[in-house]
Amino acid sequence: MQGLRGYLIKTDKSCAKVDSLSVLEHATAADTKLLWLDIIGDLTPEMEDELARTMGWHPIVMENFHLASSRPKLMNFDRYSQVTLHALNLDAPKDESRTSEIDVVIAKSYLITYHKQPIRSIGETLEDLEHGRLTSVGADELLYHIVSHLIDKYSPVIESKRELISALEEEALYQPGSDLLERIVIVRDEIIELGMAMTPQQLILAQLSTGVCRHVRPFIRPYFKDAESRLRNLIDEQNSFKEMLANSLELYRSAMSSRTNNNMTVLTAMSALFLPLTFVTGLFGMNVPLPLAQSHHAFIWIMIISTASFVGMLAYFKAKSWF
Q1: How far apart are CA 134 and CA 126, in angstroms?
Q2: Could you state, in order of their start, the residue ranges of all structural domains in the chain?
Q3: What is the mean pLDDT of the chain?
């Protein structure tokens, strides 16, 4: 999928949709209040040349567009800054990364966002802008709204993990299934992956809220501080999930150990029940003279003794609750 979309807002408050790179010439124009251009998909050589020629970006900016970064980052330049964030991509297969990279170039009068897959957070921000739900518009304000929507997508995922882990704990305590360990490990890996995506982004939001990024105005920084606080709360929840999963693993191990002990108890008791029978039959099966061996009632007495010992030991085991 490839596409261009965005808005060009003039100082006279006129707003127009844009869908081509030709609008980049207005990015630094005197009558431009804000240009937001969102690029989706792979960049063609022609698009790269146009961006490099018109915007005058450092070559490393375009290089970062191509390189997949596993961690968010912030780089300041003279006239612009580059921010790399990660959004949840829940539609991705489980064997692929569940986050999508967003490369952002922010300046005083423009915001350029680039991502290879559709990002819901950016789509919702575009809708907010289209329907007039953003009362004041600036490049840093738009970046905050994208970040806010991005964090909103993490919240239900974290909450769903809480419910899932609670269910795993209950199953581990009362009726552990044969695939429980595998499911616990899968959830643990997902929690770790969420932590790897969220923790570095908290550091980036902290930088955006403290003036490290020179293109975020002072009165916008508290908004990023609030976003950082929300993300930090989610990270604290995610860390608590690690402890809950560790408890689930301990419960699973205890349940498996208890089940093994119970099985061994039953097997030992069954072996003990048949031990007298084995002894009596083995004793009278020897090819040597034995008392009562020549009696016509020997078989009856052997059966009586064997049955009595079996019933007696069974009653004793039941009284001891061994099985």
Answers
A1: 10
A2: 3-254, 265-319
A3: 81
